[in-house]
Each structure stands twice: as structure tokens, then as C-alpha cells.
Write a structure and sequence with these properties.
heterodimer; A: 276 residues; alpha/beta; Rossmann fold; 8-stranded mixed sheet; 5-stranded antiparallel sheet; 33% helix; globular; B: 297 residues; mainly alpha; MetI-like fold; 72% helix
């Protein structure tokens, strides 16, 4: 396989099979990177040699058809796949390989938060949803907790809608509000990195647009990696895009390049809606 | 041949008839017992102690015994069932051989005839461990009988909580114990409580497992004496305690009091009413708890 490297001279009309953008560590601040990541479900190889770097305070989209391995990849990043899959390779975060056995996954997940496809607020009040994990982690200062509730709800663009009902059950919110509450809950932990697994796919277009606005706002403070099936969403919100196909990253580049001049034929077909 | 519309109609009629039949049988049974028994109910009947030879005996002691035995049984069996249920559903590796073995053991335990459990309890606790005919022996026997059902009900309650909730906890850096203890269990409380109350109804009506463990005699109790170590104290768990269900069986099989039929009918009505109340109460409590958990605090 001719692994496409950036800047390699392409004298033929043949397109490369793969094209992976390699981030220059001197020019970009890298928040997270993977090296030779492989994921097995039992004997089945679901993802192979994924080498990606994620730039700090940028949004990276992971796109690809169902079963392409993008969600598997995302869930491996904060070890949510530990119970169901075998993950090999390195995930480098602040100079540490967080895929190694001696990592405290609970501590690590405070730094790498996650939001899921379907809103999953706890059956608690709106403010308790946000404060619960903080309290468990040892924060008991009421004034500080109230402040965190307010700032995280504001950052998630939910504050104005719920500020008078903070004691109300989170389950009484609409799906779109629940999803923004879940985002608020995740950012209340002050993570470095936020992983989002199709956060808007279960929502109506208006709620979905609000989530997108929220993401644009959040990228000032967090590094965001988002799995999405929505091409418009990927092209609107993200700075980088990785295209997954049958368990491999076929192309990784700046989003505008992926959506205007992709180098790999499969990517061209996918973003144009010819398959997937 | 019937056309689809006709066959659909025919099927509906048959299914409605079957469902109606089930309700009819239940209504007839409950109705008969109530009609026979309720006229014999009086405050005196519910509160006075039974008499072996003369008419006019009540079921007060048996009624108390039934409730007390139920409470002791629950105190023993619920913590075990809760622990087992949480372990089986939240912690255990579902594919491991050991877990399959435990599940099979629970299945078998739940299908043991209660009279066999009773005789086993008699040999082991009453005779071997010298606990005698006592509330404690009865409660342990009932625990054997109750544990599989309760464990499964706890497990089912936990299963009804979506995995998304567990992932939410994990993604916030919460340990499994924190997630289970503070998120999963509270969310499962309404359904766990329903399971407990329903199993309480079953335990309340159980007779066969108690005949040889809690005994068939109901010594008079001194309701002014609440020292659990005194023999006449209602709280003493080492005293023999005939329950309502056992009393019904005894009165019918060897009762020689002149009003045996009336006592039996009255006691049956009380038993049925209590079990029905357990069922309604379970439903009510689960609704209340669900609302409280999901609505404004």
C-alpha cells in the first residue's frame, strides 16, 4: 500500500490509496495523538493502524459509513471500549500513553470527557446532573459548585432556558436541551478534550444547529473530536476531518481540503454521497 | 374460507374470551372467599388470640406473626438479594462459567417445592442447629424460598436501566461503584421496591415451608412486653410462631373447635385481602417513587 505522505510528488494521474496529514509538532500544538491503534472485537479486527494527531483548540470530525470504525476509534480514545474490545497501540496525551495498563482510567476520563449519541442525563435535577460528579471527585464548596453550574450551562448555551428551573428533573427537558445539559455536564469537569459521538444525530434540525453553535463556542477552550454522519455538519464546524473506511483511516486533512479537493477516490465518493 | 377481516375478528373474539375467562376465575375465587369470610370478620376476631377447643377464637397472634415473620425474612433476604443482584448484573463477567453456574443454581433454588425447603429447614435449622420451631428457623426457610425470586427481581430492575447511564458515569470519571451506588440503584429503586412488595405478598401467604420451621403453635403474646429476649414478647425471634396461612391449614386439617369453618373462612379472607393490598401497594409505591425521582424534588 502506498501510504500517501504529504508533499510527495505525484507525477501520475493515479490517486493514492491513503492520505494522512502529518501534523508538524513545531507549528501545531498537539492535544492527543494515536499511534498504530488497532481495535479487535474478539477475533474481528475493527480498526487498524490509525495514526492521527489532534490539534489543540480545534474541532476534528471523524466521518465514514456505519461500521467504518470511527465510533470504535473515538470510544477507544478514553478507554470506553475496555470492556468489549482489545485495543492495541498507543494513545499519547501529555506525553503519557493512556492506553497502557497502569493508567488510572477514571482519572484520565476527567481530562478526556465524552458525550454520546443519545442524551443520557441522570434521573436527577438539572443542577445535580452537573454537580454530582464534581461532588464525587471532592468539590463541596456550594458557591463554587453553583458558579460551575452557571458557567457550564452558559457555555453549553442552555442557561437562559433553564436558569429558573435548576431544581427541575433533567428528564423533563426536551431531547435537544438534554443533550446540551449533557455537554454542560461534561465541560463542568474542565476536561482538555471533548469526545462527541454523533451528538446531534438524534435531534431535530433546530436543536442540531444549536449544538453546532455550542461547539463553535466551546472550541475556544476545548479540543473537540466529533463523530458525525452529517457531511454539512462536518464541513461547517470542523477544522480537520478524518475519513474512515472499513476499519482504516483513508484520508485525514484540513476539512476544507477534504470537502473540496480530496486526494483519495473513496473520500471523493463518500463526501459526494455516492456510497455510505 | 374466512377473509382477513373475518379471521381477525374471530381471533379477537377468541382472545378476548380467554382473557375474560382468566379474570372471571380470579374474580370468582376472590369473590367466593370474601363472601364466605368477610361476615366473620370483626375487631375481636382480628385481635384476640385463637382458641383450640371453644368457639370465638380469633387470629390476632397469627396475624402479628405473619407480619413479623415477613419483616424478619425481608431483613435477612433483601440485603443478600441486593448484593447478589448487583454483582450478577453490574460486576460479573456474563460469559464466565461461574456466573452461569450461579444462575443455574438460582433457577433450581426457585423451582424447589416449598414443602421440601420446609423439611430441609426443619432438619438443618430446627433439629441440627437446635433453633427449634421458631421465627428465626421460619425466616431462614423463607429466605431460601424468597432469595431466588428477589435476586432475579433486583437483576431485572437493574437491567431496565439503560447502559447509557453507566457510560455517562464512566465518561465522567466515576468508578463503577460510584455509578452503581449513586446513579443506577436510585434509578432502579421504584422497580426494586415493586419486586420486594410483590415477593412480600408471596412470602406472606406461604404455609408449607413454615409448618415444620416456624411451627404450628401460637403461644399467647404479651403485647406490653417489648424485650426481645422474653419468651412472651412479640419481638422474640426464638419463639414458635404459627402464621395466618399455617393457621388456615391447621384449622382445616385438624381443627376441633366448633366454629372451625368460620375461623378458616375469616382467616382466608384476611389473607387474601392482605395479599391484594400488597399488590395494590406495590403499584402505588412504584408510581409515587417514580414520580418523586423524575419530577421536582
Amino acid at each position: 500500500m502506498a501510504a500517501g505522505t504529504q508533499g510527495s510528488l505525484n507525477l501520475t494521474n493515479e490517486q493514492p490509496d491513503r492520505h494522512i496529514y502529518h501534523m508538524d509538532e513545531d507549528k501545531h500544538e498537539i492535544a492527543l495523538s494515536t499511534k498504530n491503534l488497532e481495535v479487535y472485537y474478539g477475533d474481528h479486527l475493527a480498526l487498524q493502524d490509525a495514526d492521527l494527531s489532534f490539534e489543540r483548540f480545534k474541532i476534528t470530525s471523524l466521518i465514514g459509513a456505519s461500521g467504518s470504525g470511527k465510533s470504535t476509534f473515538l470510544r477507544s480514545l478514553n478507554r470506553m471500549n475496555d470492556d468489549v474490545a482489545t485495543v492495541k497501540g498507543n494513545i499519547m496525551y501529555r506525553g503519557l500513553d493512556i492506553n497502557s495498563q497502569d493508567i488510572d482510567v477514571y482519572e484520565m476520563r476527567k481530562h478526556i470527557g465524552m458525550v454520546f449519541q443519545r442524551p443520557n442525563p441522570f434521573a436527577k435535577s438539572i443542577s445535580d446532573n452537573i454537580t454530582f460528579a464534581l461532588k464525587q471527585h471532592g468539590e463541596h464548596d456550594k458557591a463554587k459548585l453553583a458558579e460551575i453550574v452557571e458557567t457550564s450551562l452558559k457555555q453549553a448555551a442552555l442557561w437562559d432556558e433553564v436558569k429558573d428551573d435548576l431544581k427541575k428533573s433533567a428528564l423533563s427537558l426536551s431531547g435537544g436541551q438534554q443533550q446540551r445539559l449533557v455537554i454542560a455536564r461534561a465541560i463542568a469537569m474542565q476536561p482538555d478534550i471533548l469526545l462527541l459521538d454523533e451528538p446531534a444525530s438524534a435531534l431535530d434540525p433546530i436543536s442540531s444547529a444549536k449544538i453546532e453553535d455550542t461547539l463553535m463556542e466551546l472550541k475556544k477552550r476545548f479540543t473537540i473530536i466529533i463523530v458525525t454522519h452529517n457531511m454539512q455538519q462536518a464541513s461547517r464546524v470542523s477544522d480537520y476531518t478524518a475519513f474512515f473506511h472499513t476499519g482504516q483511516v483513508l484520508e485525514y486533512d484540513l476539512t476544507r481540503k477534504i470537502f473540496t479537493r480530496p486526494k483519495v477516490q473513496m473520500t471523493i465518493d463518500y463526501v459526494n454521497g455516492n456510497f455510505g | 374460507m374466512l377473509n382477513p377481516k373475518q379471521s381477525d375478528k374471530l381471533a379477537s373474539i377468541i382472545l378476548y374470551t380467554i382473557a375474560g375467562l382468566v379474570i372471571l376465575i380470579l374474580a370468582a375465587l376472590v369473590g367466593y372467599i370474601l363472601v364466605q369470610g368477610v361476615p366473620h370478620l370483626s375487631w375481636h376476631f382480628l385481635t384476640s388470640s385463637s382458641s383450640a377447643f371453644t368457639a370465638g377464637g380469633g387470629i390476632g397472634v397469627q396475624l402479628f406473626n405473619s407480619f413479623y415473620l415477613l419483616i424478619i425474612t425481608m431483613l435477612i433476604s433483601f440485603p443478600i438479594a441486593l448484593g447478589a443482584g448487583v454483582y450478577l448484573h453490574e460486576y460479573a463477567n456474563q460469559k464466565s462459567r461461574l456466573i452461569q453456574l450461579i444462575r443455574t443454581a438460582i433457577e433450581i433454588l426457585s423451582s424447589l417445592p416449598s414443602v421440601v425447603v420446609g423439611l430441609f429447614g426443619f432438619l438443618l435449622f430446627v433439629v441440627q442447629f437446635k433453633l427449634g420451631f421458631s421465627i428465626l428457623s421460619g425466616a431462614i426457610a423463607l429466605t431460601f424460598f424468597n432469595l431466588p425470586l428477589l435476586t432475579r427481581s433486583v437483576e431485572e430492575s437493574l437491567r431496565s436501566i439503560p447502559d447509557l447511564q453507566r457510560e455517562a458515569g464512566a465518561a465522567l470519571g466515576l468508578s463503577r461503584w460510584e455509578t452503581v451506588g449513586h446513579i443506577i440503584l436510585p434509578a432502579a429503586v421504584p422497580s426494586i421496591v415493586t419486586g420486594v412488595v410483590l415477593s412480600a405478598g408471596r412470602v406472606f401467604g406461604e404455609a408449607a415451608a413454615l409448618i415444620y420451621t416456624a411451627g404450628q403453635s401460637a403461644p399467647a403474646l404479651d403485647f406490653g412486653d417489648w424485650n426481645p429476649f422474653n419468651t412472651a414478647s412479640p419481638l422474640n425471634i426464638m419463639r414458635p410462631a404459627e402464621t395466618l396461612a399455617v393457621h388456615i391449614w391447621k384449622v382445616n386439617s385438624e381443627g376441633i373447635m366448633p366454629d372451625a369453618a368460620a375461623v378458616s373462612a375469616g382467616a382466608s379472607a384476611v389473607l387474601i385481602i392482605a395479599v391484594l393490598l400488597f399488590n395494590f401497594f406495590a403499584r402505588f409505591l412504584s408510581n409515587v417513587l417514580y414520580k418523586r425521582l423524575t419530577a421536582t424534588k
